[in-house]
Amino acid sequence: MKKLLSTLFTLFIVLSVSAHAVFIETSLKGTKGEPHALKIVYGEPNEHELVSKWWWYKEGMQINLTLIKPDGSTSTLATTAQGDHLSATFVPDQDGVYHVSLKRDTERKEGAKTQYQINAIATIHVGHSTLGNTASHLANELFVFTGQTSFKNKKEVSLTLFQKGIPTANTAVQIIAPSGWVKWLETDAQGVIKFIPEWKGKYYAEVSRREKVEGQSFEEYSRTSSMSFAVN
Predict the structure, then answer these.
(1) Residue 57 in 3-state DSSP?
(2) In the 8-state DSSP scheme, what is residue 107?
């Protein structure tokens, strides 16, 4: 019993703050023919640092987002620097599920042994079609995905972690609730985590993994990734 309680405490520990990460903030519902706004923020959900303080962003640097439409076609969205975020917009032209993806290797100092990579995903549903709601549309090397089209409070949520297109087991994923409460869950053999949300609102999933590499001028990749979903 003590071992079970210890395990549950480790996996479901409640924390007051979470680590800084890159998030794409946007409404997860869009309307065909109407502009849809996106924000790239750095910090913690609802506590964003000024762009000038982002260690991975240099003044004037262009950060591009990849827009994946429901039919699988892609386009590039350029961002504009604002006070505490980068902004972008697109206009949905078909019903279905859109994905907006950020993937970027950060600037690495000469001689540094670790290459950091930032990944972030946002999924926007337009209309009632589920066309495009597939992990195969995403080219990020690390991301959390869900095939669910809606999330209900007190009902089980299922998320899958992918690395290089393969479900990834035995990895801790951080779930950040609307209240700021944090839960850590470990993926199972199929790369899946499941939990029951306790509040309505927007949730974030965040994960990081390190990978040893050969034939590069550095020794390892350190990747982070985030996504969000809304519980009604």
Answers:
(1) coil
(2) P
Q: How far, in whole angstroms, is CA 75 from its chain's centroid? A: 19
Could you report the per-residue pLDDT of 96-111, keeping only the tens digit for each? 999 999 999 999 999 9
Helix boundaries (H) for the chain: 2-11
Distance CA 22, CA 227 (A): 9
**Strands 74-78 and 64-68: what pairing?**
antiparallel
Single out the residue of 21, 29, 65 nearest to residue 47, CA to CA: 21
User: Tokens standing for 8?
Assistant: 């549950």
Q: Can you tell me the distance from the alpha carbon of 89 to that of 39, in angstroms, rounded to the nearest whole number? A: 9
Cβ contacts of 193 within 8 Å, gap of 6 or more: 158, 159, 160, 161, 173, 175, 185, 186, 187
Token pair, residue 85, equals 């975020």
Beta strands in 7-137 (DSSP E): 21-25, 29-30, 36-44, 47-48, 64-68, 74-78, 80-81, 86-90, 96-105, 114-126
Which residues, including other chains, have CB under 8 Å from residue 26's CB and lie 6 or more apart?
36, 37, 38, 39, 100, 122, 124
Structural domains of the chain sorted by starting position, each given as residue range(s) with its CATH number in brackets: 2-217+221-230 (2.60.40.1930)
For residue 137, the SS3 value is helix
Structure confidence by residue, pLDDT tens digits, 135-180? 999 999 999 999 988 899 999 999 999 999 999 999 999 999 998 8
**Measured distance CA(152)–CA(212) in Å, rounded:** 39
Q: What is the pTM of this model?
A: 0.89
